[in-house]
Amino acid sequence: MAKTLELIFENMEGRVVRLTLESPVEPADPALISQVMDEIIAKNVFDSSGGDLVQKRGARLVERYVEDIELP
């Protein structure tokens, strides 16, 4: 199963922006994740079509299971 960490922000237009990181370190450290998100906002390192990232909305671990189907 593939796991990702989604960092969820709000941009200047109030729209949601998600940054996805593959293979996150577990267990997740909420304080560290919050600190990194604050730094991303403060340093303005990512662009979005709706302007700068201005606020944290949340973070979540996402687990995905994929099963290929062999066709005859």
Automatic annotation (TrEMBL):
Pfam families: DUF2922 (PF11148). InterPro entries: DUF2922. This is DUF2922 domain-containing protein. It comes from Caldalkalibacillus uzonensis.
